[in-house]
Amino acid sequence: MFYVGLVIVWQLVSSSHFLSEQVIPSPFEVGKALIMGVKDGSLVYGIATSMWRLIVGLAIAIAGGTVLGIFIARYETVNQTIGSLLLGLQSIPSVAWVPLAFLWFGKTDGGVIFVTSIGALFAVAITTHSGIKSVPLEFIAAGKNMGASGLQLITSVILPASFPHLISGFKQGWSYAWRGVISAEVIFSVLGLGSLLNLGTKENNISQVIAILIVIMFIGILVDAFVFKRLERSIMSKWGPR
Amino acid sequence: MTKLQAKNIVKHFDHNGTSVLALDGINLDVQEGDFVCIVGPSGCGKSTFLNILAGLEKPDDGEILLNGKPISMPGPDRTMVFQEGALFPWLNVIDNVEFGLKIAGIPKDERRQISQRYLDMMQLTKFADSYIYQLSTGMKQRVAIARAIALDPEILLMDEPFAALDSQTRDLLLVELQLIWERTKKTILFVTHNIAESVVLGNRVEIFKHRPSKIKKEIIIDYRRPRLAEDENLRKYQHEIIQELKSEIIEQKKAGD
Ligand SMILES: Nc1ncnc2c1ncn2[C@@H]1O[C@H](COP(=O)(O)OP(=O)(O)OP(=O)(O)O)[C@@H](O)[C@H]1O
Ligand SMILES: [Mg+2]
Hints:
The structure holds 2 protein chains of 2 kinds.
Chain A: H1 2-15, H2 27-39, H3 42-74, H4 76-90, H5 98-105, H6 109-133, H7 137-145, H8 150-188, H9 193-202, H10 206-239
Helix pairs in contact in A: 2-10, 3-4, 3-6, 3-8, 3-9, 4-6, 5-6, 6-8, 7-8, 8-9, 8-10, 9-10
Chain B: E1 2-15, E2 18-31, E3 35-39, H1 46-54, E4 61-66, E5 69-71, E6 78-81, H2 93-103, H3 108-121, H4 137-149, E7 155-159, H5 167-184, E8 187-191, H6 195-201, E9 204-208, E10 215-220, H7 235-255
Parallel strand pairs in B: 3-8, 3-9, 6-7, 7-8
Antiparallel strand pairs in B: 1-2, 1-4, 4-5, 9-10
Helix pairs in contact in B: 2-3, 2-4, 3-4, 6-7
The structure holds adenosine-5'-triphosphate and magnesium ion.
Adenosine-5'-triphosphate binds at residues 13, 20, 22, 40, 42-48, 193, 211 of chain B.
């Protein structure tokens, strides 16, 4: 409903001719650009490639970040050496990794995936660390008491006990990763939503640029609704409202 | 047969640079099938002693023997019922009860059989699929007991498991625990600071001194079961324990904690 209202306001603004079509195209023009994109397949293909890179990059970031976070949490020396470095690394915006990705991987999928995962990895590692640190000691004592130790203690007690915390790290990681994918694609101009944005700029096609921005935003909304809201709901149903 | 032996257990804690002697040579033998209660003033080291038996903390001196063999690591042969239950909120009731069985690698069918049996014993069958937050405090303690017994431990360690319960629920569980003990023939070591509770449950009540803690006295309670909390005949035992503890509580006041 809110979005319908937004489109109506938009239509009113653009039809008032207060701003020219070159600044704010009408929803109609943007819709046309979207349909064009679907028809010639470029949009569908762009979404598919970007999503594919996102998923691979995010999977690497979550796996790597979780393992890294566990190490920092379990070994105080690792924390003291790598901990502060990690905070520094996390403060680097994804875009800043693009030049390095270019030098290491060139304008390839590998380069985009590198940018995607590296931006998210440190955020995931940091929240995993703090999540593990916040696990009540009684859970760990209970786990050991019932025979769990080593890796089993981590997978069957420590990780599930910190899962509500981990989710917020994954969520942050996903948003960094999504930014990373688009940034790298814009700069590298390799096929994907980012390069479609680029193409729109080159062709001076503002409708296409705005259409792609809307697609990027909607993917964000959908991922939040279908992945994270669901995970959060499933946690609530087990841990109870908190 | 001696199930568990604590030999001269000593434990210090560091309190902001000063060393506090919590346990000053605890000696205790627990016979197979015995029900031993430990009472003592708050902070005397009861939980510490239990944690050492469970292998969750290391003594500075002394050793623990289980069936004559020294132990040092935590293990499912000495399961603990924690004061707050320490149940896992990410697992439902039945999976909580099966946790240790799963760790031990017992196949699913067998696990279900065992957990069903103990859920049944604890009258929790209807709540098998509930999550922990959906349970009352009394139900949570039942789950915690089921989870600990399901592993068929050599000795069951219980650290004030009923402290957070209202008196009705507690009286009910006091009877249930005696019945379970008679049925399973488990060896139980039960920490409490509720004296009435200790005389209802224990064959023996060990009275801990104020820090640095030793066992001050042992009281044998040879009386029929199941015992009820309101039984007049248990009064004299209670009175005896209170007399012993009184001087300890005065000591504790003097020490300023
Ligand atoms: N991890 C710890 N670090 C420092 N001191 C500790 C630690 N654990 C226990 N202590 C100290 O050891 C003493 C015994 O504590 P413990 O918890 O065993 O007492 P308790 O008899 O179980 O008391 P309560 O009846 O209140 O539960 C206390 O003085 C406490 O301050
Ligand atoms: Mg205690």
